[in-house]
Design brief:
Elements: H1 12-21, H2 24-27, H3 33-43, E1 48-53, E2 63-66, H4 67-85, E3 90-94, H5 99-111, E4 113-116, H6 123-132, E5 135-141, H7 149-159, E6 164-168, E7 179-181, H8 182-187, E8 205-211, E9 219-224, H9 225-239, E10 246-249, H10 256-268, E11 272-276, H11 284-288, H12 290-296, E12 301-303, H13 306-312, E13 327-330, H14 337-347, E14 351-355, E15 365-366, E16 377-381, E17 386-392, E18 398-401, E19 408-413, E20 431-432, E21 435-444, E22 450-455, E23 460-462, E24 465-467, H15 469-477, E25 482-492, E26 496-505, H16 513-523, E27 533-537, H17 550-569, E28 576-581, E29 587-593, H18 601-608, E30 614-619
Parallel strand pairs: 1-11, 3-4, 3-5, 5-6, 6-7, 10-11, 12-13, 13-14, 26-27, 29-30
Antiparallel strand pairs: 1-2, 8-9, 14-15, 15-16, 16-22, 17-18, 17-19, 19-21, 20-21, 21-22, 23-24, 25-26, 28-29
Helix pairs in contact: 3-4, 4-5, 6-7, 9-10
């Protein structure tokens, strides 16, 4: 079993002491994911590993699975997958958060490799992922009143000959020819041993996680057993997980944060995970009853993405006992300081940040939960890893280390780094010179703590002045009416880009744009960073794990700028404007004029040529 430090990690010196006392191999003897569950089941056989809530109702009888039971189910799933798919099969799953989802993930990694799929992707993208990963088996959810997973699965099967569908559905659901019933199939397998030989381990591929947005064809990033184990050990160490901890599990299992930091790391230490419904904090009943459930299930660690935590922190909590909460843990997006302050006000505990990436098997750094905490810091690198802040050369390559407080690119080394994309052609610019180029901008303070200054592509460059969007976003979320803020660059013919900010208000809140502008001017020290425009939206777009989806906001900002230019300045109100990702400059604007305005083509094209995006004008 993994050997953790007796002394909670509170500082960089504690991490260095841990590294010097024992080697990584001495601390982490496990070679396979299965060994983690074998060790935990031997140590905590009767302890609850997973508590599954479906509705969040006060009188709900939660489903519970012990560590011994979970190990048996994982072995049974692995045996089933080996029977269905042969040696080392690729097993994809399209599932919300269920006990069966955990069993599928770890069972797939034991027998072959897992391919977690975001079920909100379009069928065409999912088909491309399954083909690219050579998937043999797709585990899916049966017919559901709100989710169209089953309908998508049938379409996918029709496009991939030989794909085996394994369906999770309530008992009594009518069978479908050629579809394997998950519950029946797993119960027919032995659960005390593997039937196909040794579990996958070491440098064997454990999973392919897809990255990218919710459109287009994402990339497949390889995880090895060793990489996931190293990341999980680092997460468990930095979080200081204990066997008496109860952690809210709110992240989907197609995302690395849900599988590693809030999954495998916790299972290493005998933590109980409370799975807060299949939809997590996207379920209204869970959000409205969150603090009651925290009290009811004796939660000690509250986990969630900043946007979701911001929502539950608006729910009154005075009637509930939150004294057991010792810390909060958040990641997947930068934490607005106002959310951290509100968390402390409501719970009396601090909210700590982590930095994770799919390409690092889920984790890069953590602000240790036993430490003092630092506002806006993602803490120190995982034990036995290295994170450097590097300058970019004139050729765009990684260069020399930055000085203290100097912003550069976050570059990572360690055994948790992925061996690369399944398509090696996609490795260029990401995996290079023994480093992983994260694409994040960041800096270190004098104590070696890491701070993230945004994504390099999110940096707003106004007349050569680099503007960190998080500075704007943090300021705007300090306004009592603002729930979410997202700052992006709006194309500008003179400055290249101008900062604009999209905001979503708290439910029931009212505020004018003028009042928000006044707040921005009063609290943002850098005048160039004052938002040129502030737009109040009903909902700021989020990804399925609660990250602000900035690509769509950048396109929206560009469309608004071009609309002002063409429809108002050039007095062409009937012009149609489309803005898309791509083009030679990363964004393409297409303007369509009505026939009667054919003579305006040249003037419109000349105006668009002043911008940094590519463009085209046509008459239709």
């Amino acid at each position: 079993m993994a050997v953790f430090s007796d002394h909670p990690i509170q500082s960089l010196e504690d991490i260095k002491r841990l590294e010097s006392d024992l080697t990584l191999d001495q601390r982490l003897p496990e070679r396979s994911i299965l060994e983690v569950f074998e060790a935990s089941a031997a140590t905590y056989p009767d302890k609850t590993a997973l508590t599954m809530l479906m509705t969040g109702a006060e009188d709900e009888q939660a489903r519970r699975v012990t560590y011994a039971q979970l190990l048996g189910l994982i072995r049974g799933a692995a045996n089933m997958f080996a029977d269905l798919g042969g040696p080392a099969p690729g097993v994809a799953y399209m599932l919300p958060s269920l006990i069966e989802t955990y069993v599928t993930l770890w069972g797939a990694e034991t027998a072959g490799y897992a391919v977690p799929i975001n079920f909100l992707l379009q069928v065409e993208s999912i088909v491309d992922l399954l083909r690219a990963s050579d998937t043999k088996i797709l585990v899916t959810l049966g017919p559901h009143p709100q989710l169209d997973i089953w309908e998508k699965s049938l379409k996918i099967r029709g496009q991939i000959p030989g794909l085996t569908l394994v369906r999770i559905a309530p008992p009594g659901t009518p069978s479908v020819e050629g579809v394997v019933d998950f519950g029946e199939a797993i119960q027919s397998q032995p659960m005390d041993h593997l039937t196909f030989g040794d579990a996958r381990s070491g440098d064997d591929i454990a999973a392919y996680f897809h990255t990218g947005g919710t459109t287009g064809v994402p990339k497949l990033v390889a995880h090895t057993h060793r990489g996931q184990l190293v990341a999980a050990f680092g997460g468990a160490t930095m979080c200081g997980y204990r066997s008496d901890d109860v952690l809210t599990a709110t992240l989907p299992l197609f995302h690395v944060a849900g599988t590693i930091a809030a999954g495998l790391s916790a299972f290493m230490c005998g933590v109980e995970l409370v799975v807060m419904s299949a939809g997590g904090l996207r379920t209204p009943a869970i959000v409205s009853g969150f603090w009651r459930l925290v009290d009811q299930h004796k939660v000690t660690l509250v986990g969630g993405v900043p946007t979701a935590l911001g929502a539950v922190l608006q729910i009154p909590a005075e009637d509930y006992d939150l004294s057991r909460i010792r810390a909060g843990l958040t990641g997947a997006a930068l934490l607005p300081p106002s959310v951290g302050a509100r968390f402390h006000e409501v719970t009396g505990a601090k909210l700590f940040e982590l930095l994770g990436m799919t390409e690092t098997s889920g984790l890069v750094s953590i602000d240790p939960l036993s430490g003092a905490g630092a506002v806006s810091s993602v803490g120190w690198p995982l034990p036995y890893s290295q994170v450097d802040i590097l300058r970019l050369t004139v050729d765009g390559e990684l260069g020399d280390p930055c000085e203290v407080d100097e912003i550069g690119v976050v570059a990572i080394r360690g055994e948790h780094i992925s061996p690369g994309h399944r398509d090696s052609a996609q490795n260029t610019g990401v995996f290079e010179d023994d480093y992983l180029n994260s694409g994040d901008l960041g800096y270190k303070d004098a104590d070696g703590r890491i701070y993230i200054a945004g994504r390099s592509k999110d940096l707003i460059i106004r007349s050569g002045h680099n503007i960190d969007p998080t500075m704007i976003e943090n300021t705007m979320t300090e306004h009592p009416a603002v729930a979410i803020a997202a700052a992006v660059g709006m194309p500008d013919a003179y400055a290249g880009e101008l900062p604009v900010c999209f905001v979503q208000l708290h439910e029931g809140a009212e505020v004018t744009v003028e009042a928000l502008q006044k707040h921005a001017h009063a609290h943002i020290d850098e005048r160039p960073a004052w938002p040129k425009h502030i737009y109040i939206m009903e909902e700021v777009p989020l990804t399925t794990v609660g990250k602000i989806y900035k690509p769509s906001l950048r396109l929206e900002a560009a469309k608004r700028a071009v609309s002002q230019l063409i429809q108002y300045d050039h007095k062409l109100p009937e012009a149609k404007i489309a803005v898309t990702d791509g083009g030679t400059r990363g964004m393409h604007v297409a303007v369509t004029l009505p026939e009667q305005n054919r003579s305006d083509i040249s003037a419109v094209q000349s105006a668009l040529d002043e911008y940094l995006f590519s463009s085209s004008v046509e008459v239709r």
